[in-house]
Amino acid sequence: MTVYAQPGRDGSLVTFKPRYENFIGGGWVAPANGNYFENPTPITGKTFCEVPASTAEDIELALDAAHKAAPAWGKTSVAERAVILNKIADRIEENLEMIAVAETWDNGKAVRECLNADIPLAIDHFRYFAGAIRAQEGGLSQIDDDTVAYHFHEPLGVVGQIIPWNFPILMGVWKIAPALAAGNAIVLKPAEQTPASILVLVELIADLLPDGVLNVVNGFGLEAGKPLASNKRIRKIAFTGETTTGRLIMQYASQNIIPVTLELGGKSPNIFFDDVNAKDDAYWDKAQEGFTMFALNQGEVCTCPSRALVQESIADPFLDAVAERTKKIVQGNPLDTDTMMGAQASNDQFEKIMSYLDIGKQEGAEVLTGGARADLGGELSGGYYVQPTIFKGNNRMRIFQEEIFGPVVSVATFSDYDDAISTANDTLYGLGAGVWSRNGNIAYRAGRDIQAGRVWVNNYHAYPAHAAFGGYKASGIGRENHLMMLDHYQQTKNLLVSY
Ligand code: NAD
């Protein structure tokens, strides 16, 4: 067990500045209006730094820098860009623990997740796209004896990116790595709840990129996000956040006829067929673990398996077992590597989850475990901690239909295969889903019949860079990860040449 020292205390791996500026054109630039906002750590609820409350003026400045940098960056060879992306990956890897502590302090998540998942995945993302851009081939088709068609991949130019607070670094890197690989310059706006860790990352890698290729402007949605997303000087807007905000982003983009990538909300079903607990073995253990994934990252995951559908015939023993397992989830200081569940990312999010705990109870759902705030005492008593909670109810309840984005799973039972699939698909969303069955045919069929962009079969919450990720229905448009992501950051030039 390691307990990392809190930032600001002796022995801490990370030193935050008391005040950050925007990162524009390769340097730190104060916001034009001179306004900053306070950024608390969810671990204790205390402010640890100030961050610019930027406005349209700062966005314009960042776009100036990006436009200055974009032509030369877009003309670098793919080999040069791949070398830079690999160097960025190496730099992050060399500083993995420091970045992990920064992310934990800013977001409240358990440091073990940052050390073992978030940051290693971010590193791999840069390496993956360094390889992907070199592997991408252009096209040449012979049209007739005299004429050939050449196809070239060209960068879009300057792109806007807006990210949420649940995986600040990983969501940032999911957007930054492919955009850079494809030769674009970037203006990125982090979420106001978690503005600091991404600035620590940018400071760490700044010398590896030409000035102006990557710019970060902090601030709130309407004041800084809207002037970016609606700006005539971007050639694409990539957004991850709530479905309601995604609708606005699409409206802004429509004015400028630019492409959008929207990674939005979810209410993912996790289906357990009746053969999962047939015997006490490694599979049964894995399936229980798959159920408790609702509490991973404090449930603040867009693909959180927040609806568990369990076949009636096994419901009692299954739910007894998973409730016991859920009670063993260790809550505590997020900087302690033994801690499995940390703090919710903000007080607003904490309050929202608490209100859904009330809604679930008022709707008549049964609380199998949890259902309240977690009081961890001492220094943590001001932090935003919630008990992992299992509700049992039915799919018509609000707790089954609305995204809570917390460590709360709503369980319903189903009678047969058709009932399972129709209940799973009875939602606005279509981002993720899980299927658990020892029967390969059932698992395969369910995987195909569920309307979701990612279905995990006999596993959950794996995010390899080379597996396409994105939503059906109100969960979004476009995909992230995978080679196909490059298409979202490039345009195709066709040259039809007669000789
Ligand atoms: P949010 O929509 O409130 O905010 C996301 C970002 O958009 C923030 O940076 C915010 O400042 C900005 N923003 C807000 N209003 C804006 C506007 N009018 N114009 C431009 N920018 C604006 O979402 P959130 O609460 O930060 O994130 C949680 C949501 O994100 C959940 O719904 C979750 O499911 C979703 N999410 C989806 C994925 C995915 O890959 N599909 C991944 C992570 C999170």
Automatic annotation (TrEMBL):
The keyword Cell wall biogenesis/degradation does not apply. CDD domains: ALDH_ACDHII-AcoD. PROSITE patterns: ALDEHYDE_DEHYDR_CYS, ALDEHYDE_DEHYDR_GLU. Residues 28-494 form the Aldehyde dehydrogenase domain. Keywords: Oxidoreductase. It comes from the Bacteria. InterPro entries: Ald_DH/histidinol_DH, Ald_DH_C, Ald_DH_CS_CYS, Ald_DH_CS_GLU, Ald_DH_N, Aldehyde_DH_dom. One of its GO terms (molecular function) is oxidoreductase activity, acting on the aldehyde or oxo group of donors, NAD or NADP as acceptor. Signal peptide: none annotated. It is an enzyme of class 1 (oxidoreductase). Its EC number is 1.2.1.-. It holds the Pfam family Aldedh. The active site is at residue 263. Belongs to the aldehyde dehydrogenase family. This is Aldehyde dehydrogenase. It comes from Brevibacterium antiquum.
